[in-house]
Specification:
The structure holds two protein chains of two kinds.
Chain A lengths: L1 E14 L2 E14 L3 E5 L6 H8 L7 E6 L2 E2 L5 H11 E4 L11 H12 L4 H14 L15 H13 L5 E5 L7 H18 L2 E6 L2 H4 L4 E6 L2 E7 L5
Parallel strand pairs in A: 3-8, 3-9, 6-7, 7-8
Antiparallel strand pairs in A: 1-2, 1-4, 4-5, 9-10
Chain B lengths: L1 H20 L1 H41 L2 E5 L24 H9 L4 E15 L3 H18 L4 H30 L8 H15 L1 H9 L1 H12 L8 E9 L1 H7 L3 E6 L9 E4 H8 L2 H16 L7 H12 L1 H7 L2 H15 L7 H8 L7 H12 L13 E7 L5 E14 L12 E4 H8 L4 H14 L6 H9 L4 H19 L3 H12 L4 H5 L5 E6 L5 H14 L4 E5 H4 L2 H38 L1 H10 L3 H36 L3 E2 L3 H6 L4 E2 L5 H28 L2 H5 L4
Parallel strand pairs in B: 3-8, 5-7
Antiparallel strand pairs in B: 1-9, 1-10, 2-3, 2-6, 2-9, 4-7, 5-8, 6-7, 11-12
Helix pairs in contact in B: 1-27, 2-25, 2-27, 2-29, 4-5, 4-8, 5-6, 5-13, 7-8, 11-12, 11-16, 14-15, 14-16, 25-29, 27-29
The chains are: A alpha/beta, B alpha+beta.
């Protein structure tokens, strides 16, 4: 069952006065439960693709469907709601709210959603703190943590709403390779346990190796979608 | 609902923590807001007090709530005079009509006719006054030659005059030291000196006893002019229906003396004016020093101004000497010696020098001695209650008119006794004003108007009046001369027994309300039942006047106060301008700080947006931050402002150190009062400015897209 449908998508934006064709007709289907890596050199359009899938941006032409909804037909507010309820984000530079504690950072999306009691929220957050191996840091501020620990917080924050899809843009780029490896392992664990769909971009071959499939992008086109045998 | 609540809670949490996290920025913005609120609260409460003082002073003493005057007037009504003197107003020919028409307008309580002008008053110097008394004594002795009591009085008076001559001679000798004896006017001065010496020798007084009237004539004509203090002063007066005036302006009260009897001619001198211009300088200086010492804790030893006043007091002791005849002088010595613990036998000049040798240690005691022992024997004011004074003023066409009026008392206004506005204007009956002004009845006014049209001159200026005077028999001149002749006659008659009584009769004649109302007025004050509905009533009064064909202009008290009102307006303008400048700068600084903050948080905001925060969430977050800072620091500033105001009040207010301030503050000190409105206004203003300065940064925050969070460069 597909969670993402991308069909003949182009994306053109203006950089000064020149038109930049970031995507030139990309088609892609992502099924539920996939652990997908988007690979390609910088400028190849992989971030643009992730933005479109993440409902952060809409295509110039073509169709992007997330959870069966055509994103180009949604209002800004509806797109935001879609992100809040369906998608989790993990960023290259973690992007935690500095003034909130680790616990509060993870709780944040739940508060935006609303609807859960305090105890329910605490249960969820604590569960994820344990699952991501940072149980004892709940009361710490992000600035007191190492890079790897911060990215674990980010993973927990992305998962706390139990989204259908988690997008991670170069989640390991700012980490040393061992820590990066650990984060990928963690994401893979979550993928296996809950069946959450992960799409992450990377240009680290070692990271790619963990993916269930790799989409290679070059010059705004999907060059090839290859399955990674080891994990299939 | 619950979702909103949760989101709001986290929004507030982030906002507050951001404030704490960036405390330097918070404090900077906060301090700006605090100072702003402080300025607004203190400034506006001072302004409010000035306003209130002005309002009370003007509405309660002369202005009422509305003023009407002829719309044909060339100038504008300025109750307190303008740069070029009094306002040039066309007369309202028949006040009764105005009273009748406007009295029917709802909310109008009273209409008080007025005519404001300046006049010259002959005060007489000590010499004049004493000679007048001497003449009276001579007359009495001639009437009953055998009366020993009268003879003793005359002898004392003669001694007083001789003493005055001696003092004058001394004064003249001193003045002569400064002047070249052979310079210009040398012969005139020599003649004057000869006259004075002539009056000083015993032979003159032996001759005086033989023919007192000739002696008096010599003294009045030759010696009096040598006295150096002038015998004239200017007063500013309002001619009005005195009974109505006293009723309308409830704060008005007679400070000394009695009210003018209903319908009669008379004058109440402005108390404030009398203090300033008519009071014996020594007494005035003592009052001023006492005031400075008591209220501002000024000390003679420290204040140059007080030292100058003390010196002035010392040098003016002669004025007191001049007032006392030998009997009184002896009595004064008797009283002063024990009070000042002076050695027996010390004479009055030395005693006075001792009395006025003031320092901080002896001031209060000497002040008391002056007022308890000496003052009852002195003529403290140049014009006393009960005097009949002659007021002269140029009439409508430039010819001088004069009336004699009795001084019934001094007028002051309760609660604003020290105001520079109230109490400087004297109150004269309307008939006397009309005599001075040159119109008597509405008929005459109409006649004059007609004549003027016939002559083809709409406005008779002084030059034109002169031309008319030299240009033969103009009908307009006839009217004026008749009027002037009548008054000259009255002046001439004053002093001659039988006819004097006729003049007296006019002075004490009671005019009916009818006579008072039917006649000329220059303007009229309107008092309202409800002063709060001033705008509405102004329109209603104007409409009623227009409907009745009365050519009147209706203005409010503020406009009528002329320069005074404009000055307050100017002051308020300056305050508002300063506030605007301050908040303009504040706006830029706060805006800048907030923009920097917003830009620094683009990534954070982008992240929040990516995670699923709506635009209103991030905008709300920024606004909460700025509003919190504004409210907290704004309240603190307002409280601090309240504290400043309280401290100012506790320490006796801001002292009025100059005449201008005295005038502005409606008294010797400004006691600012915190008004609820000023606090609320300041908070609203501060909040408004803060929110306005947060709008652009909020817009920046709103425009942040989640893409910014995704951007990989850091």
């Amino acid at each position: 069952m597909s969670i993402i449908q991308v069909r003949d998508v182009t994306k053109v934006y203006l950089l000064g006065k020149t038109q930049v064709h970031a995507l030139r007709g990309v088609s892609l289907t992502v099924d539920k439960g996939e652990f997908l890596s988007v690979a390609g050199p910088s400028g190849s359009g992989k971030t643009t693709l992730l933005n479109l899938i993440g409902c952060v941006d809409t295509p110039t032409t073509g169709l992007v469907e997330v959870g069966g909804l055509d994103t180009s037909k949604l209002t800004e507010r509806a797109l935001t709601d879609l992100r809040l309820h369906q998608i989790g984000f993990i960023f290259q530079s973690f992007n935690l709210v500095q003034v909130l504690s680790v616990f509060q950072n993870i709780e944040f999306p739940l508060l935006l959603q609303g609807g859960l009691t305090k105890a329910e929220r605490a249960a969820r957050v604590n569960g994820l703190l344990e699952a991501t191996g940072i149980g004892e840091y709940g009361r710490h501020r992000p600035s007191e943590l190492s890079g790897g620990q911060r990215q674990r917080v980010a993973v927990a924050r992305a998962l706390v709403t139990r989204p259908a899809l988690v997008l991670a843009d170069e989640p390991t780029a700012n980490l040393d390779s061992q820590t990066g490896q650990n984060i990928i392992d963690l994401m893979r664990d979550m993928n296996r346990k809950d069946g959450t769909t992960f799409i992450f971009s990377t240009h680290d071959p070692k990271v790619m190796a963990h993916a269930s499939a790799i989409i290679r992008i070059a010059d705004g086109l999907v060059a090839v979608r290859e399955l990674v045998g080891a994990t299939a | 609902m619950r979702a909103r609540l949760d989101a709001t809670r986290v929004l507030l949490r982030i906002a507050f923590r951001n404030l704490v996290a960036s405390r330097v920025r918070t404090v900077i913005i906060g301090l700006i807001v605090l100072v702003g609120a402080l300025i607004v609260v203190v400034g506006s409460s001072m302004m409010e007090s000035i306003d209130q003082g002005m309002r009370t002073s003007i509405q309660g003493s002369l202005g009422g709530q509305l003023q009407v005057y002829s719309s044909a007037s060339e100038g504008q009504l300025e109750l307190y005079g303008g740069i070029r003197g009094e306002s040039l107003l066309e007369p309202i020919p028949d006040f009764a009509r105005v009273k009748e028409v406007l009295g029917k307008v709802p909310n109008v309580k009273m209409i008080v006719p007025m005519g404001i002008d300046q006049a010259l008053v002959a005060t007489g110097n000590v010499f004049d006054v004493t000679l007048a008394k001497l003449r009276e004594d001579v007359r009495q002795l001639q009437a009953s030659p055998g009366d020993a009591e009268v003879r003793r009085g005359l002898e004392a008076r003669k001694a007083h005059v001789q003493r005055l001559i001696a003092l004058l001679a001394e004064e003249l000798t001193q003045a002569r030291v400064l002047v070249d004896p052979n310079g210009r006017d040398a012969s005139l001065r020599k003649a004057q000196r000869a006259d004075l010496d002539h009056a000083a020798v015993p032979a003159f007084w032996i001759e005086f006893d033989r023919d007192p009237l000739a002696g008096l004539e010599f003294l009045e004509n030759k010696v009096t002019p040598l006295a150096m203090d002038s015998g004239f002063t200017f007063i500013r007066y309002v001619g009005t229906d005195v009974a109505a005036f006293m009723k309308a302006f409830e704060l008005a009260e007679v400070a000394e003396g009695t009210a003018i009897p209903p319908g009669q001619r008379g004058i109440l001198l402005g108390k404030q004016y009398a203090e300033e211009w008519l009071k014996l300088k020594n007494a005035r200086r003592l009052d001023q020093i006492k005031d400075k010492r008591d209220r501002f804790h000024a000390r003679i030893a420290k204040e140059e101004e007080l030292q100058r006043w003390v010196k002035d007091t010392r040098s003016r002791a002669r004025e007191i000497l001049a007032q006392l005849d030998p009997l009184q002088a002896a009595e004064a010595e008797r009283r002063l010696r024990p009070a000042l613990e002076a050695p027996a036998g010390e004479e009055l000049p030395a005693l006075l020098a001792r009395l006025f040798d003031l320092d901080d240690a002896n001031f209060d005691r000497h002040y008391q001695v002056f007022y308890e022992q000496l003052a009852p024997m002195l003529r403290l004011y140049k014009i006393s209650v009960g005097d009949v004074i002659t007021i002269k003023a140029p009439g409508k066409t430039g010819a001088f008119n004069a009336v004699n009026v009795k001084v019934y008392g001094f007028i002051q206004y309760r609660g604003i006794e020290k105001s520079g506005i109230a109490g400087t204007t004297s109150v004269v009956d309307l008939q006397s004003f009309r005599d001075l002004y040159g119109y008597v009845t509405s008929d005459k006014a109409e006649e004059l108007a007609k004549i003027r049209t016939q002559m083809g001159a709409t406005q008779v200026s002084r030059e034109e009046a002169e031309a008319a005077l030299f240009g033969g028999e103009g009908p307009g001149r006839q009217v004026e001369t008749t009027r002037a002749a009548a008054i000259d006659e009255r002046q001439l008659l004053a002093g001659v027994g039988a006819k004097r009584k006729a003049a007296k009769a006019e002075e004490t004649r009671a005019y009916t309300q009818e006579e008072i109302d039917h006649g000329v007025a220059l303007n009229a004050a309107i008092l309202l039942h409800d002063p709060g509905r001033i705008r509405e009533s102004q329109a209603a009064v104007q409409a009623a006047a227009d409907a009745a064909g009365l050519k009147l202009k209706v203005i409010d008290w503020e406009a009528a106060s002329g320069m005074v009102g404009q000055f307050v307006l100017l002051l308020r303008g300056i305050l508002i301008f300063a506030v605007i400048i301050f908040f303009g700068v504040a706006l830029v600084i706060i805006n800048n700080a907030m923009v920097m903050a917003a830009l620094a948080r683009v990534k954070e905001v982008g992240t929040m947006r990516a995670i699923g925060a709506q635009r209103r969430f991030v905008v709300g977050m920024l606004l909460v931050e700025i509003i919190t800072v504004s409210v907290v620091f704004g309240l603190a500033g307002a409280a601090l402002g309240g504290g400043v105001v309280a401290v100012i009040r506790a320490t006796g207010g801001i002292p009025a150190t100059s005449d201008l301030l005295f005038f502005l503050f409606s008294g010797p000190a400004l006691l600012p009062r915190i008004g609820g409105t000023s606090v609320v206004a300041s908070l609203v203003l501060v909040l408004g400015v803060a929110v306005a300065s947060a709008l652009y940064p909020a817009w920046i925050a709103m425009r942040v897209t989640p893409v910014e969070a995704m951007s990989t460069e850091d």
